[in-house]
Design a protein that fits this description.
Layout: E1 10-26, E2 29-43, E3 46-52, H1 62-70, H2 73-77, H3 82-88, H4 93-110, H5 114-117, E4 126-127, E5 130-132, H6 137-146, E6 152-156, H7 162-172, E7 177-181, H8 188-200, E8 203-207, E9 227-229, E10 248-251, H9 253-256, H10 259-271, E11 275-278, H11 285-292, E12 300-301, E13 319-320, E14 323-324
Parallel strand pairs: 5-6, 6-7, 7-8, 8-9, 9-10, 10-11, 11-12
Antiparallel strand pairs: 1-2, 2-3, 4-14, 13-14
Length: about 325
């Protein structure tokens, strides 16, 4: 007699486009739509989901991400596990979508929440930044008026009108805490010139002010405002090279390649006395959901991607009074 036939996992990949409520500009370009890839892994009557946002800054495209995931379909069908995934796909968006789907599938299969499986405390509502995109001073002032009750605002900047734009946001949302993000758009000299005034405007952190491959000048500069590595930090490998340049790192699942590596990065960063920011690309609540589990590590949380959408997926994360709540089981995990 033959034994029972092992159930194969089934892979489904979807390309999705989610229009934004309004154009969203940063120093390197403007987005009007979030282009995401959703991975679904089905086994024994349940389906786990994960979402990623391919990012051109890192040489990614939707087509390339889909192709990378399709290339490991056979291994996924045969039971590839999360730890094995770290060796099969490099850090990046493709691995993130698969990693998220594997976590979700395990949660649904075992009847346990992901934070229980990962050995984390149950997540609590977390204060999240709400972002103002780059634009003319008057436009950014208007955006600040709309967000004047937000406890924490993140301001996108480039190398032009740095003080004027920040001043406009401060004046129109005077009670909000401010963090700013030039997305590699400055030089060290510009940073040195504007930092004292930004400190006066109560800016609490500057995210990736200079290009990731040109940040050695930060070693010799004692900035009065903490600096956060974003594009300069992807995984725990190379983390030691950031010591002395930055005081904080931004952990994004699309950079780490998923929650599995993000947890390892968070713990390694704490060992090196880095503070942590939990960030996101512009995606739906499905992309943000795994990242909410990292909020307990963080000084700053920036998971407002769904708030930039014209419409989020349902069910989605709940945002209230500046806080994002943990995902329900029917969304993820």
């Amino acid at each position: 007699m033959s034994g029972p036939v092992a159930t194969k996992r089934r892979l489904n990949i979807r390309r999705e486009g989610w229009p934004l409520a309004r154009p969203f500009a940063i120093s390197r370009g403007v987005k009007t739509q979030a282009d995401v890839v959703v991975v679904e892994l089905s086994e024994a009557g349940v389906t786990g989901r994960g979402e990623c946002v391919p990012y051109p800054r890192y040489g990614e495209s939707v087509d390339a991400v889909v192709a990378a995931i399709e290339a490991i379909e056979g291994q996924l069908a045969d039971g590839l596990e999360r730890r094995q995934l770290l060796e099969v796909l490099p850090a990046g968006a493709a691995r993130n979508a698969v990693d998220g789907a594997l976590w979700d599938l395990q949660a649904k299969t075992t009847g346990r929440r992901v934070w229980e499986i990962a050995g984390l405390d149950a997540p609590q509502p977390a204060l999240t930044a709400e972002t103002i995109g780059l634009g003319p001073v008057a436009q950014m002032a208007d955006a600040a008026k709309r967000l004047r009750r937000a406890p924490l605002i993140k301001v996108k900047l480039d190398a032009q009108l740095v003080i004027e734009r920040t001043q406009a946001v401060h004046d129109n949302a005077p009670d909000a805490r401010l963090i700013i993000d030039p997305n590699e758009g400055w030089t060290t000299e510009l940073l040195q010139g504007v930092a004292p005034k930004l400190k006066e405007l109560r800016v609490e952190m500057i995210e990736q002010p200079v290009p990731a491959d040109a940040d050695d000048g930060l070693l010799a500069y004692d900035c009065p405002i903490p600096l956060c590595a974003d594009e300069a930090c992807h995984t725990k490998e190379g983390l030691h090279k950031l010591v002395g340049k930055y005081q904080m790192i931004n952990i994004k699942l699309d950079k780490t390649g998923g929650l599995t590596e993000a947890l390892a990065l968070a713990r390694a960063a704490k060992d090196l006395r880095f503070e942590i920011m939990i960030g996101c690309m512009v995606g739906t609540s499905l992309a943000m959901a795994p990242a909410t589990l990292l909020a307990g590590f963080a000084t700053f949380v920036d998971l407002d991607g769904p708030l930039l959408m014209k419409q989020d997926r349902q069910p989605g994360l709940r945002f209230q009074a500046g806080y994002v709540e943990p995902p329900t089981a029917d969304l993820w995990g």
